Amino acid sequence: MNSRRTIELVEVGPRDGLQSESEVVPTHIKLQLIERLIAAGLRRIEVASFVHPKRVPQMADAEAVLAGLPRVPGVQYVGLVLNRKGFDRALAAGCTEIGMVTSATESFSQRNQGASVEDTVRAWEEIAPLARDAGIRAQITVTVSFGCPFEGEVPASRVIELVKRLTESQPLEIALADTIGVAVPTQVTDLVGRLRDVTSAPLRCHFHNTRNTAIANAYAAVMAGVATLDSSVGGIGGCPFAPNATGNVATEDLVYMLERSGFPTGIDLNNLIRAGHWLQEQRGRPVPSMVSKAGPFPRNIS
Asked: Do residues 160 and 198 touch, judged by C-beta distance below 8 A?
């Protein structure tokens, strides 16, 4: 294992992080947050979801956010889409990458998307080639890959069969999401290892820190060969359709752990911490990130 290989971070704070905020965040605040993240070195940023505004009111300004963002060479603006209508909106708005979602369980699929697993997979199979034809990168996430709030333990075999089918549509990558934060490192190592035998698609991992295992799980994923991880500035977020699903793994905490472990990320930790502090001021309450509180080591933030 090359300990100097670069790990790519996909920043999900402006979408997955903000969608659970109790008060609607103004568009100009979202734009300032994204600009600060770009300045810190983030190059793949999930900026909006193109879903019905009644379902996720926080994302009602998706088009306005895309219209206000600077076009920076090398920066991918990711939009979450669930169906053809959402894809058409993302395409018109100027997203350079789309993310889609399916689920490892029927119960969560119905609660999260109001559709069956089969329906969500078929939507992916329809939209993935359309995205490629339009020059848009397309990837998909399998939610509750490690455990479901409604069905409990999720057999690895179920995730494996789902990933096999998703691979047929040539995704940019397939993400495994620990949506409710129940995974442990041995589980991550096992599932990633087994999936490498059945898919040619790159794997990405998305961890929540509900039970304080997100950093450990992220390290296990990296050691198993995963090269891309999701994270949220400040550690904010949580799925609004999953009971007790607290925040994503904090980008600051992940950058600190990875860089100190010999895995470059290309992200300026000091600037990232400043972005987290700024976000904390906008929210009017602390962010969960530990590194935002303690600072880097050696402590050289000005």
From this structure: yes
State the catalytic residue, choosing from 95, 148, 205, 239. Answer: 239
Single-letter amino acid code for the residue at 169: S
The C-alpha atoms of residue 48 and residue 115 are separated, in whole angstroms, by 21
| Separation between Cα atoms, residue 240 and residue 253, nearest integer Å | 23
From first to last of its 302 residues, the chain has per-residue pLDDT tens of 455 799 999 999 999 999 988 899 999 999 999 999 999 999 999 999 999 888 889 999 999 999 999 999 999 999 999 999 999 999 999 999 999 999 999 999 999 899 999 999 999 999 999 999 999 999 999 999 999 999 999 999 999 999 999 999 999 999 999 999 999 999 999 999 999 999 999 999 999 999 999 999 999 999 999 999 999 999 998 766 666 667 899 999 999 999 999 999 999 999 999 999 999 999 999 999 999 999 999 876 55
Cis before 298 (ω within 30): yes
Beta bridge partner(s), residue 140 = 100, 174
The verdict on whether 239 is a catalytic residue reads: yes
Side-chain half-sphere exposure of 5, counting CA atoms within 13 A: 12
